[in-house]
Amino acid sequence: MPSIPEALATAFQHHQAGELAEAEAIYRQILDADPTHADACHLLGVIAHTMGDNESAVALVSRAIAIDGTQPVYRNTLGNALLDLGRPGEAAASFDQALALHPGFAEVHNNMGLALAAQGRLEEAADAFRRALELKAEFPEAFNNLGNVLRELGDGDAAVAAFRQALDLAPDYMEACNNLGTILTTRGALAEAVATFEKALAIDAGVAMVHNNLGEALYRMGQLEAAITAFGKALDLDSEFGVARVNLEAAIRDRPDDKTLRKRIIDAHNRGLVAVDIDHRTLGHVGSPVGGEFYSTRAFILVGLIIGASYRFLEGTIASAITAVVLLLYWFIGRRFTHRAMRNYALRRIFNDLDLWNKQWNFGGVTLRLEAAGLKFQGPGDSWRAFAGKLADYEAKIAAEAAAETSTGTSSAVSTDPSLSQ
């Protein structure tokens, strides 16, 4: 049978590997052999805290402290469990005791900041986070926590800087990404906020809050279809997420109806900005008279070719030969004009009939292209409503650039006084 130190080392290896059940079993065996083993008792408390059983964690770690009150890490673990139980005042007292034993314990200063922030003592919390960073410069969690407190204190610039420092140290720090995106949204830097939330979701796509926050940024940008999708994903992950549900209902309520969106595309097409391509082969499959007319025309040509060829070879008349040649010329040359006429007619039909437009799109018979922005959308895999949103973004961007050029062109003076520099 291994000695207690050997058993503790084995249990700790399981613990570090995330094999908590195996570690817990060995810690309990150690306590059965030696009920006064403080480390085994403390580490059982750590597992309980990790599993969310904070009442048991408090009991176990308090027992460890009663056995050996000289270990600051025990009091830090106790403070964390108390904090998660919503008892920040008691947590702060435990952190104080840990710092009395080890004043340079950076992690405890960070946790003290969390306890102080939970009590609304934001200035003191900021000081605690700064002290943690003085002791441990590469501490992304402390930068993130400092950013949250600075945001609450109204110092947006410093908060953004803190979140960026957290991400410089830990690029895959999802919480810092989300927090940075949130403050960028409130400050109106919406494009960067969206990119930041998308980065957070690339790290962990299973967080409903981040999908909701992405939706809020998209909503503010006027990208309602994309916002609706984001809010929907948040609710897929958490059906009880009330804020996301309210946001989804607001986005749906504010979304332009399909007629408005379709008109935006048609207007852009009429201005030559958007190309709308029709696949004639699909027209007959959506209950459109256009399709029947097209196929009838093609059938007529084919029949004419057969008849003309038959007369030519069976009777040998000059008229039959001429008929065959004319029909062949029409097949290879004239039908292009027929196709163009049919395309234009089809466009008029779907432009004036929303149901036919949707049927044709869903059958894959319509392609939308915005060459200036490198966009090509085709049903049914793409959404023509999303294309309308991209079109609106592009037109807004062009308008903003034109306004900026106009503003630059009309500026008559540039300050060279350094006191006026921003």
How would you describe this structure in keywords?
single chain, mainly alpha, three-stranded antiparallel beta sheet, disordered C terminus
Helix content: over 70%
Count of strand segments: 3
- What is the terminal-to-terminal distance? 72 Å
Shape: elongated
Strand content range: under 5%
User: How does the major sheet shape up?
Assistant: 3 strands, antiparallel
Order of helices and strands: HHHHHHHHHHHHHHHHEHHHEEH
Annotation field: number of helices: 20
Can you give me a brief rundown of this structure?
The chain has 422 residues and is mainly alpha-helical.
Please characterize this protein's 3D structure.
The chain has helices spanning 4-16, 20-33, 38-50, 54-67, 72-84, 88-101, 106-118, 122-135, 140-152, 156-169, 174-186, 190-203, 208-220, 224-237, 242-254, 258-270, 289-314, 318-351, 354-362, 384-410; strands at 275-278, 366-370, 375-378. By secondary structure, the protein is mainly alpha-helical. The chain has a 3-stranded antiparallel beta sheet with strand order 1-2-3. Helix 5 packs parallel to helix 7 (106-118). It starts with a helix and ends in a 12-residue tail after the last helix. Mean pLDDT is 83; it is low at 286-296 and 409-422.
Topology:
Elements: H1 4-16, H2 20-33, H3 38-50, H4 54-67, H5 72-84, H6 88-101, H7 106-118, H8 122-135, H9 140-152, H10 156-169, H11 174-186, H12 190-203, H13 208-220, H14 224-237, H15 242-254, H16 258-270, E1 275-278, H17 289-314, H18 318-351, H19 354-362, E2 366-370, E3 375-378, H20 384-410
Antiparallel strand pairs: 1-2, 2-3
Helix pairs in contact: 1-2, 2-3, 3-4, 3-5, 4-5, 5-6, 5-7, 6-7, 7-8, 7-9, 8-9, 9-10, 9-11, 10-11, 11-12, 11-13, 12-13, 13-14, 13-15, 14-15, 16-20, 17-18
